[in-house]
Amino acid sequence: MLPRHRRFLAICCVLIVVGFASFLILKSFQDNLLYYLTPSEVIAGKAPDDREFRIGGLVVVGSFYREEGNLTSQFTLTDGTATVNVNYKGILPDLFREGQGIIVRGMFNNTSVFIASEVLAKHDENYMPPEIHALSKPTE
Amino acid sequence: MAPEFGQLFLISGLAASLMQFLLGLNIISLNQTNREVLITRFTSIHSLAVFLAMLCLSYSFLIDDFSVLYVALNSHTNLPVLYKVTALWGAHEGSLLLWIFLLSLWGASLAYSQKFFDQTVILKIKSLSILGLVSFGFILFIIYTSNPFERIYPFPEQGRDLNPLLQDPALAIHPPMLYAGYVGLAVPFALALASLMSSKDYHWAGIARIWAINSWLFLTGGIALGSWWAYYELGWGGWWFWDPVENASLMPWLVATALVHSLIVTEKKQLFNGFSALLAIIAFSLSLLGTFLVRSGVLISVHSFASDPERGLFILMLIGFFTGGALIIYALNQKQSKPLNLNLFSRESLLLLNNVFLCSAAGLIMIGTLYPLVLELINSEKISVGPPYFNFVILFPFIPLMLFIGVAVFSSWGGTGKKLLVNINRLALLSIVIGLIISYLILGYETPLTTLGLILAIWTIFTGAMPVIKNLGSQTHQLIKNLPMALAHIGLGLTVLGITVTSSYGITFDDTLGFGQSKQVGNYEFKLISIEDRAGPNFKAKVATVDIFSDNIKVGSVFPEKRIYDSASPSMTEAGIDSNLFRDLFVALGEDLGGGIWSMHLQYKPLLRLIWLGPMIMMLGALCRLFLLKPFRRET
Question: Do B595 and A69 touch (CB under 8 A)?
């Protein structure tokens, strides 16, 4: 084999490997993007129906319900204009309160209830995710 | 008066850092000896001034001077004294002050270093000058946007208290360690630029390596501490969340690791000079990026407590200036390099290859961290990139990286592959066999990735330990020569082993538990005995007693807590953990669901401790290199 041919072969191999790796990485990137929506955007039909996404909003005061001794809780999220009903089985974060801004991750089941697999609350007294801060301003 | 003095010291620091910068330029006519003496003095004055400013702020904390806004926001009369001291870096303003203090301290250590000789004095002057400019920029930033000495009037009777999450011994030393690592990278950065602008030779590499190892040491410790803290304090027993702020510390670590290895080649073989300089620039730029991400609040992150657009913009401008400026200097001063003729199996090319993998890992993390931000800027679409992305893509650089680490250990400078292959064959076979035995017979087969992870971890540990084992009978300095590398590689292997086993065989779930009831977690049975009230110095708590049984034999009790601090309304979770080297059993108290039933988070994590033991051994390796090797170097 001529050195030129060998070099050509080597470059081809590298390109194939790099190309394949980038393809897998990009695909994984696409698969793992989590969209972040407000309840209004969800109602407007922007929510993907085949994968998880996030909704950010305020927990409607008086909407929280949980049976005694049961891990599953229900509550409603709002951005001031639209609402979404959420169902979550698990421990709620320490900072979860009615009237507080939270973020939920999950998907809709076929009865238009959002089944959350994760609930995030704001980190401390003074912190608010920028999105929630933006949406809580007009109501305050 | 203390805050006013602090302010004064800060301004003196600003002036001294400006002088430090100006002395390095040729606009002041001085001979070189005087210039060196003066710049050394101004470097000390500058760090002394910042240190005194920090003392003033500490004093205000200790005497509960709530007329200082920063103290009022982050302290309380009932706060234990230890946390009054550490509250200094509990929020944005104070932590930046610490950042600058550590930067000036590294600068002073460079100024008084014995590493310079006559030929490299110019290198010392130029690099101190660059460090002066970096300090100048950041002190200006503090004074203009985030002054910790600002007063309020009328001042409150009582402070708002330090964030309860931060009232913890590990978190008291986590920020200083991490920051020491971040800003330590400013020294190789300054040395690289100084070299590019003056001599363009290889002298800088040996000096930069010392500070690169120092920073790496602190970064490793800081990241491990942060992970440990998140595990037991944040409440839910995870040890890595791919949170933007965690990523911001991991990226400089990866590049710093590459830098340390690249500097070896530059120092010993006079190769890759440009690449090392570029790595030094990137490493420090990533540190600055980390500061920006944490302090500007641009990303959806549990850490970004201080969001202020003005601050973000200022830091962004500083990053743009330093990174952009450095890259321009790099581009303009790049020497025409001689054509490289590398043997594929020589140590230098294997190190280069692994450095490329380390940088790609940092790059992939950066894409996942910054992409949401960029997308939001472009079309205001809000997304976040989840942990599955990071967990998946990190494998692409890391699997070959782990593979080649072992090969590189056995390679020789400029060497060919023939002898190498003979040496590593047996060890590779041994690692594969042991990995397969552990994965199939001891732990039980999980996924191909688990088996691969086990084999690679064992391979890294074996190949790391081999050079030391081979020299056990020989002279001490022969033995010690390989010790830093061996410890660092063994540490990495143990970490990977821990990560592989914990994530493949760990069990974690939420469930309900009533008094006297028990739940099965793997081979362990968790039984709730009681829940009682307890009063702490500045909080009230519910304490649960959970007994853990294995085959009906009690192996331990844990006492998870739910705390309500006097000052803040939301409650805090303190997990109950029973741990030994082989497994962690974890219980976090959820809520009272009524009817005597509580929700609980239960966890069984095998080999979890290795994830933090590994970094400790890596740090031991760095310490060996810094302190143990020196006396033997002089002898030989």
Answer: yes
CB pairs under 8 A between A and B: 106
Residue A111 to chain B, least CA–CA distance (Å): 25
Q: Which residue has the tokens 């590994």?
A: B614
N- to C-terminal Cα distance for chain A? 76
How does pLDDT run across B369-424, given as a tens digit for each residue? 888 877 777 776 777 787 888 998 899 999 999 999 999 988 888 876 666 677 78
B528 vs B133: CA distance, rounded Å: 59
Residue with tokens 């391979």: B459
Nearest residue of B to residue A24, measured between CA atoms:
B393
The encoded tokens of residue B354 equal: 């692994």
Alpha-carbon gap: B93 to the closest alpha carbon of chain A (Å): 15
Torsion angle of the four alpha carbons B190, B306, B387, B560, in this order, in degrees rounded to the nearest 10: 120
Could you check whether the bond before residue B448 is cis, i.e. omega within 30 degrees of 0? no
A120 to chain B: which residues are within 8 Å by CB?
302
Question: Which residues fall within 8 angstroms of residue B47, CB to CB, at 6 or more apart?
Answer: B101, B104, B105, B107, B108
Name the DSSP letter for residue B155.
P
pTM for this predicted structure = 0.91
pLDDT digits (tens, 9 = 90+) for B438-463: 999 888 888 999 999 999 999 999 99
Distance of CA B268 to the CA centre of its chain: 27
What residue ranges do the domains of chain B occupy? 1-164, 394-505, 507-606
> Cα-Cα-Cα-Cα dihedral of B87, B88, B91, B94, to 10°?
180
